[in-house]
Amino acid sequence: MEKFEALIGEMEEYGRSNHVPIINEKGMPVLLEMVRQKKPHRVLEIGTAIGYSALLIANNSADDVEIDTLELSQERADIARAYIDRSAYKDRIRIHIGDAGENILKLSGKYDFVFIDAAKGQYPDYFRKVYPLLTENAMVLADNVLFRGYVRGAAECPRRFKTIVKRLREYISLVSENNEFETVIREDGDGLAVSQRLPKENNR
């Protein structure tokens, strides 16, 4: 297998050259910090793109980690599979192609870590559908929740983004007001919502 760092570097270059939306360099340390803290065994990723974050998660999780990752685009899934197959994690990462909202409902078992980085307007729907699949101590991390500063900033939101911004505000309210979770909004990058499920006796 190729050296992991070289493979990741190649993927970063591909992402830059082809304008593929992989997690940005300011958001990535937060993702890795949370994964290293959690050391998850079973991960669900919504939004594979080229497999960049799936590989980073795999490399920082428990030794027995298994990852299900959902991708709408067959083309991107094929690129992701080609990269993943060059890594030591090729047998640990499964790519499910198609609409994420539909594919979540086909999954079984429980996940202790969920990373959401797909269609921003679907975040509330994703969370509601993922909820029954969460372990009692699960962590859910959603990227881009501050969306270019429009979600919490004072700047006027362009009309084309109004629905996305509305849904991201709904997502933040959904996870922040759920007393089963403690949610922190990290302002790194484009904003990440980190929602840690609390032990039942601590639910507020």
TrEMBL record:
The keyword Transferase applies. CDD domains: AdoMet_MTases (cd02440). GO terms for biological process: methylation. GO terms for molecular function: O-methyltransferase activity. Gene3D superfamilies: Vaccinia Virus protein VP39. Keywords: Methyltransferase, S-adenosyl-L-methionine, Transferase. This is Methyltransferase. The lineage of its organism: Bacteria, Bacillati, Bacillota, Negativicutes, Selenomonadales.
